[in-house]
Amino acid sequence: MTLKPLKDRVVARQEKPLEKTASGILLGEAKEKPAYAVVESVGPEVSAIKKGDKIIYKEYSTTEVKVDGVDYIILKEEDVLATM
Predict the structure, then answer these.
(1) What's the count of helices (H) and strands (E) in the chain, helices before strands?
(2) What is the CATH number of the domain that holds 66?
(3) Does residue 29 register a pLDDT over 70?
């Protein structure tokens, strides 16, 4: 199933939380969700973001959706803070 965002919305796939740090320390249940995701599709009014971009976003302004076992977020283009 493909999510098609409307107007100025962006659909992105959330990255999985890190299992261990760069230095090899294993993280337990206290892992934080990352505030970044990979863009899967954009609405027709989105101008600065394209599919495949890695974005940093405002965590409190998203709608979380699970489709076919994959976690997605839907947010407005204005809630994207930066691309990586």
Answers:
(1) 0, 6
(2) 2.30.33.40
(3) no
